[in-house]
Design brief:
Deoxyribonuclease I, Chain A, phosphatase activity, IPP-5-Phosphatase_Type_IV, 4 helices
């Protein structure tokens, strides 16, 4: 049954522009959580952004209807797959002149196997590496140019008086939890990011949107999982589960892929 929740990390302000919206659901026997967030702005506000993330993961009350043996206070621990995207507002600490010089000499997309020019000075990469936030999350290699800040309607980086340094403020992170085999051992089939890119052709904002394509594995479902009336034909749904369970029964240690397009 799809569920949603939202949180403003600035509840006292008149305009609640910072916070998160989340939706979760079960697909067969696998649980998903999608979070999109807009975190505190400005170069120097790293601690505030980390605080925003902590508030979000500890305050989103999901799931409410799905049966869980133990519900973790960290909402991202309650699901098999978690995707967190949005304007996370982390910046590059490299001076603007050096970033612009590098951009003028660089062709995109970058080869995925090469280290990115200035990601060693990216605030989010530092937060991920030192464990200050987003514990257990991963990010695919960035091969596209910075997604912020552009003059709206153009492909030109900020020419206003503020002269913002180009940065990767818009990101997609992902996380998965290990699944337990019948033998009691933990097993994880890696969640794969097949594509991670930006869309430079969209010029209506001072940001460029990012998008991704992922491949994961689905487990057969259970009859105890509540369904949303009207969203599924229950007989068709349950027949699909029975067929998947029958196909999997010959090899409990094997895995299967369900491709939904």
């Amino acid at each position: 049954m799809p569920e949603d929740a939202s949180l403003s990390v600035r509840p006292g302000t008149a305009f609640k522009t910072k916070g998160a919206v989340a939706v979760c659901f079960m697909l067969f026997g696998t649980s998903f959580l999608f979070v999109t967030a807009h975190l505190t702005a400005h170069q120097e506000k790293v601690k505030e952004r980390v605080s925003d993330i902590t508030k979000i993961v500890n305050s989103l009350d999901l799931p409410r209807a799905l049966p869980l043996k133990t519900k973790n206070k960290d909402v991202t621990q309650n699901f098999d797959y978690v995707f967190w995207s949005g304007d996370l507002n982390f910046r590059l600490t490299t001076p603007r002149t050096k970033v612009l010089e590098w951009l003028s000499k660089t062709s995109f997309p970058l080869p995925a196997h090469l280290p990115h020019g200035y990601l060693h000075n990216d605030q989010l990469c530092s937060v991920l590496s030192d464990g200050a936030a987003f514990k257990g999350f991963l990010e695919a290699n960035i091969t596209f140019p910075p997604t912020y800040k552009y003059d709206p309607g153009t492909q030109t980086f900020d020419t206003s008086s503020k002269q913002r340094t180009p940065a990767y403020t818009d990101r997609i992170l992902y996380k998965q939890r290990a699944t337990r085999r019948l033998s009691g051992q933990l097993e994880t089939v890696p969640l794969q990011c097949l594509i991670y890119d930006s869309v430079p052709s969209i010029t209506t904002s001072d940001h460029k949107p990012v998008w991704g394509v992922f491949r994961g594995h689905l487990r057969p479902g259970l009859d105890t999982i509540p369904l949303a009336a009207g969203l599924f034909n229950r007989e068709v749904y349950m027949e699909g589960l029975r067929r998947r369970a029958t196909l999997l029964s010959f090899d409990r240690n094997g895995s299967a892929v369900c491709s939904i397009q």
